[in-house]
VOC domain-containing protein (Streptomyces roseochromogenus subsp. oscitans DS 12.976), 159 residues
Amino acid sequence: MLGALDHVQLAAPPASEDRLRALYVDALGLVEIPKPPVPAARGCAWFATADGTAQLHLGIEEPFRPAKKAHPGLRVKDISSFAERLAAHGAPGTWDDTLPGHRHFSSTDPVGNRLEFLEPTACRPVPDAGRPPSGASLSRTCPPPPRGAGPEGGASCTP
């Protein structure tokens, strides 16, 4: 049974490591983690969240073609401030309102790979832990309301 998503890998062209570090470390707040010897010899970099719960790997690919459709969906807090931070680092976003229960936007990394950033705004059903989806009972999870959200802007539900 699948337990969790360990990492996502995106491709990058040769000699792009410094530009990618500027976005993934300086703008996104990820930390670069050491690669094992064999992948390290191939180039590029691996990154993780500060708590180590999620990783994003970048690997050299020739010929390189950026991912324009396929993308990681990265959950963030205070998405408006996060979007401003990305724009200040040269990665402006395009907002989209087609995903119910979320505020989200897409941007690209310095080599053109699509990145999606999401912040839940409403409750959504999730399977109870330890049960397979087919027999799962549903509980509800609610994120905290966005900063400054009035009654219409915040999530409200009871588990």
